[in-house]
Amino acid sequence: MPIDCLPTALIIPGVMGFVVFVFLYAGVVLPTIWSRHPERRKAAHCTLDMLLKARRGLRRIGR
Description:
Helix content is 81%, strand content 0%. The protein is built from two helices and no strands. Helix 1 packs antiparallel against helix 2 (38-61). The protein is elongated. It starts with 7 loop residues before the first helix and ends with a helix.
């Protein structure tokens, strides 16, 4: 389906969700993996852990 046929109400949330995902990935996941500094890796790991726990909690609420 060409993007011209999709209503704007579907395109904007999809783009915004993708942008949020990219920022979270670049700001949290990549430093967890590739940082040379142990403090930075530990902080990024804790942040990622908090985000994943929050996501699991939201999934339970949505049931």
